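Summary for the steering committee. One of the milestones for this cycle was to obtain a three-dimensional model of the protein with flavin mononucleotide bound, which we needed before selecting residues for the alanine scan. The sequence and ligand used are listed below.
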Amino acid sequence: MNKDKSRNLRQALGSFPTGVTVVSCLDKNENALGFTANSFTSVSLDPKLISICIDKESFNIDSFSIAKHFAVSVLSEDQQSISTTFAMPNEDRFKNIDWRAEDTGSPIISGAVAWFDCNTEQIVDAGDHLILIGKIIAFDSSPKTPLMYLRGNYVNLGLEQKMLLAMENENTEIIVGAIIEWRKKVFLLKDNNSDSLYFPSASRLGHIDDNQSLLGVLKNLNLSINEHYLFSVFEKAEDKTSLIYYRAQAKEGAEDLVNSFYAFDDIPFDKLSDDASRIMLKRYIKERELNAFGIFVGKESEGKVEALSKNNQNT
Ligand SMILES: Cc1cc2nc3c(=O)[nH]c(=O)nc-3n(C[C@H](O)[C@H](O)[C@H](O)COP(=O)(O)O)c2cc1C
């Protein structure tokens, strides 16, 4: 399949929302191995079977092919960094991870929303993947909110709920802002009187034809963005304001606004208009460096999780 077709297929497949799991086993030397997988599926209740698909090019394919047991840990929404760790090349992904063994000895991630400890029941050869079918030996679950994955991005349900609550509160003023990135730079407006820098914002997200909305403000700035994702929701207690921030990538054409984009490692933080913006932007850059918003693009790219800036156009 040519590259474009394969990208289109991944795009279509990515429109099916999933949870995020870590699939793990012990290798022949009893070392803990694991990788991030969203191909987890329940297969049968009686007998109790689940399945996951593993890429035949996976670094650990041999270990998973011969392992008599494996485990699946369903990640919670505060475990996004674990998902990133287990999707990136790393000698020992379990090094700084809190985990334990249950019945089969396979590693189970502490704090997971649910886990399934399995005997390997069957391995099915399926194209460029193997389907591992596991017979559940032990399992547990908790009411925590799971991490979700859609169109190559993590979806944080807790954040969405926080936003809805903030919007329902009639006593708070809403400010909706955006962190817009382009080529590892971030877009900031300058207040000519005070020389301070601030994010574009408005009183609602709105629509490009609504001048009072964030999308309208961006359009008037001639700044076109790709899809936007909720990044942060917080309250400023002192003036009863709720701030809702999205993150987005600028489309090509942002060259014309190059003077308003500040390189990640050259941001004059002292000029940002307030502490909240400073803290938020520092967090954004840190997470960006960790590639926490990485998109799963499969094995065709060199890095299996590719940075948004390289190819977010199609996600
Ligand atoms: C959200 C997400 C879901 C993924 N799902 C799968 C999957 O179901 N099967 C798979 O083989 N790889 C999947 N990957 C990619 C692997 O986690 C990634 O390629 C990892 O580096 C494989 O590690 P290994 O080669 O060390 O085994 C996914 C990655 C992400 C970020």
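Key point for the committee: The two ends are 19 Å apart (CA to CA).
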